[in-house]
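Q: Glycerol-3-phosphate acyltransferase, please. Structure only.
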Amino acid sequence: MVMDYLKILSMFILGYLLGSLNSSLLVGKVYGVDVRKHGSGNAGATNTLRTLGKKAAVFVILGDALKGVLACLIGSLLVGNNGLMVAGIGSIVGHNWPLYFKFKGGKGVLTSFAVALMMDWKVALILFAIFAIVVAISKYISLGSIIGAALFPVAAYIHKSDDKLYLVIAVIFAFLIILRHRSNIKRIVQGTESKFGKKKTA
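A: Structure for Glycerol-3-phosphate acyltransferase:
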């Protein structure tokens, strides 16, 4: 029993270390720019797009997704499905609070989506569809992320109510994403949140 817990803990640590490789900050170093000092201040793909352009954002998207996938694959190979989910959560936590970048990371949406795909692609695609619809209507990427995350536990319960760890992980997902979007929620309420496809005016 103790060994099982140690294995699970080691998967979380492994995922955390992988997740700490924040793609936007690594790509920013190539450009000589710390994206946390520009735009929204978030170390993620959306702020990279606004700060460094489409090419840089593509590399960030690929990097953020890949580390989530790798964490899950390694966790699955070493420990099984529980290892997959725990390593996945670790990669999200690492992205949000990266060890290598003074614990100042992004909001974990892309990495979370990659991990959700690895856990159950059907649920993940449903959540992505909800995200896309919300963004298309509101033009707020953050709102789409928040609503998609909030509905993850609901979708998980409907689809896999017998898998307790999956349900717990879904709740943790939702909590982490909503927690990291607190400032966005405030700006949405105030009407000052940036809309997708629209540049800020002075």
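A: Brief note, in case it's useful. The chain has one domain: 2-190.
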